[in-house]
Amino acid sequence: MKFTAEQIAGILMGDVVGNPDAEVSKLSKIEEGSEGSLTFLANPKYKHYIYTTKASITIVNKTFEPEEEIATTLIKVDDAYLAFSKILEYYNSVKLNKTGIEQPSFIAESATCGDNIYVGAFSYIGENVKIGENVKIFPNSYIGDNTVIGDNTIVFSGAKIYSETIIGNNCVINSGAIIGADGFGYAPNENGGYNKVPQTGNVIIEDYVDVGAATTIDRATLGSTIIRTGVKLDNQIQIAHNVEIGKNTVIAAQTGIAGSTKIGENCQIGGQVGIAGHIVIGNNVKVQAQSGIARKVKDNEVLQGSPAITLSDYNKSYVHFKNLPKIVKNINDLEKNKWE
């Protein structure tokens, strides 16, 4: 699909400087721009590329004034970064604008589907499933019995959503995500082995939640594992049974959260963080990457390390970590001198 500079300026409420009929059909970085591509300039560090870019159209801030001759057509807007983000969103909506039921696919007779949905080939939708309006389920997806999916939600290829799961409106479930698998529940038996504890609960995902590729969210043993409104989960995260994550919390890749832990609202958790089970983490907490959390965390704490301590204490301690060999040598020298 092609767009002219004039059409893009209309979408962004911007002004064209150059050829209003310049056409683009793809997006690019400014340093990798080619004929027929649309790019943007927001960071001053990349300003020199605008004089060499081969992109047909470049979105810039209204304050930008070229100091040399340029070949690219400009679209001037109040905020070039925000405007390009808007174009990306528009581009995605066009690219993903599929409707209809592809074959072969299976939809149980007891399932109900809203208007304007898309179901890709080789997908399975089980008994008593309820799917809202404008939902898109891409090929090779599995939707288990009694699952509910709200309006405008997207389930990408290969996602597996187990039975009884409830997913809200405007969510994104990326490829390979598994929602509602059994929690890790086993009880030791008299023979030295383990008996599986049935996991009879479900997963509830509220509105505007993004679940990254290959992220797993286990069903509760009893009750629900709950992901609150606005949560953003990166790829390859493990969320165990009965965990609850508060509104607008963001969690980076490879983080693992053990069972029954409660995480508050507006938290920011870095990559490869390990969080022990049955603890409470407050609101507005920030956890640096590769930290280990094994205790209750109060509101507004900033933590780093394993076991994690406050960031200020960690930074003070790190000075000594680096000098540890020297400190040990000094202590040994003192001990030696003491006995001489």
UniProtKB/TrEMBL annotation:
Gene3D superfamilies: Hexapeptide repeat proteins, MurE/MurF, N-terminal domain. Its EC number is 2.3.1.191. It catalyses: a UDP-3-O-[(3R)-3-hydroxyacyl]-alpha-D-glucosamine + a (3R)-hydroxyacyl-[ACP] = a UDP-2-N,3-O-bis[(3R)-3-hydroxyacyl]-alpha-D-glucosamine + holo-[ACP] + H(+). Pathway: Bacterial outer membrane biogenesis; LPS lipid A biosynthesis. Residues 21-89 form the UDP-3-O-[3-hydroxymyristoyl] glucosamine N-acyltransferase non-repeat region domain. One of its GO terms (cellular component) is membrane. GO terms for molecular function: N-acyltransferase activity; UDP-3-O-[(3R)-3-hydroxyacyl]-glucosamine N-acyltransferase activity. The active site is at 241 (proton acceptor). It holds the Pfam family Hexapep. The keyword Manganese does not apply. InterPro entries: Hexapep, LpxD, Trimer_LpxA-like_sf, UDP_GlcNAc_AcTrfase_non-rep. It comes from the Bacteria. GO terms for biological process: lipid A biosynthetic process. The keyword Calcium does not apply. It is an enzyme of class 2 (transferase). Keywords: Acyltransferase, Lipid A biosynthesis, Lipid biosynthesis, Lipid metabolism, Repeat, Transferase. Catalyzes the N-acylation of UDP-3-O-acylglucosamine using 3-hydroxyacyl-ACP as the acyl donor. Is involved in the biosynthesis of lipid A, a phosphorylated glycolipid that anchors the lipopolysaccharide to the outer membrane of the cell. Belongs to the transferase hexapeptide repeat family. LpxD subfamily. Homotrimer. This is UDP-3-O-acylglucosamine N-acyltransferase. It comes from Aestuariibaculum marinum.
